[in-house]
Amino acid sequence: MYIAGDSITKRLSPDKMSDNKISVKIRSNPGAKIDTINQHLKESKVDEKQYVQSSDVFVLHAGTNDVSNGESVESIVSS
User: Fold this and answer.
1) Which residues pair with 5 in a beta bridge?
2) Cβ count within 10 A of residue 74
3) Distance between CA atoms of 52 and 58, rounded to whole angstroms?
4) pTM for this structure?
5) Could you tell me the sign of the dihedral formed by the alpha carbons of 48, 52, 54, 57, in that order?
């Protein structure tokens, strides 16, 4: 499982979420908006990209910083 997101994800613990059947990696981007998180994923190192591509589950938590900066939910969903 790979989790990417804004500062909300920094409180998650991969050690507590992982076990012998599932491995969890978290990429936290404090203050990031959706475009920034997307760019970070594109610029990831090769080993991180391989982990993302081989993960059965990908969780993206984003948009809270976009909303707090005044963007409408409609514009966020369409981006």
Assistant:
1) 28, 61
2) 8
3) 7
4) 0.79
5) positive
